[in-house]
Design a protein that fits this description.
Layout lengths: L1 E4 L3 E4 L22 E10 L6 E10 L10 E6 L2 E5 L1 H31 L5
């Protein structure tokens, strides 16, 4: 793939096998060249239908001054965070523990409802 940049003119970028596109459009600067790969969206059911609460995508910025390694970018809480394979496993462990807290909170709600005279 060749992209035209303001700072380096035409730049030929090797396309990795896992790259599925370039959502950001044509980059203005070489450092903005990114590869976007497989993605994952996690949703939770709601009365209005599924709500996305986590989005993750394989990403690489081969000319970035900061992070050149292939990583997974996770969108959480309004921010985007890069994770290595180890960091992503730690995130999964943390989320699993937090989901157990939701189960315990459901038990708390059930007990409160039972004390108020019924489960409604």
């Amino acid at each position: 793939m060749t992209v035209h940049t303001l700072d380096h003119g035409p730049v030929t970028v090797p396309e990795p096998d896992w790259c599925r596109g370039h959502d950001q459009g044509a980059p203005q600067y070489r450092a903005d060249v990114t590869h976007t790969g497989p993605s994952l969206s996690l949703t939770a059911p709601s009365r209005r239908g599924p709500v996305e609460w986590l989005h993750a995508v394989v990403d690489a910025a081969p000319y970035s001054a900061r992070e050149r390694d292939v990583a997974v970018v996770v969108e959480l809480g309004g921010g985007s965070y890069r994770y290595s394979p180890e960091g992503l496993r730690e995130l999964a462990d943390d989320l699993t523990a937090q989901l157990q807290e939701i189960r315990a909170f459901a038990d708390t709600l059930a007990a409160i409802r039972a004390n108020e005279g019924g489960d409604r």
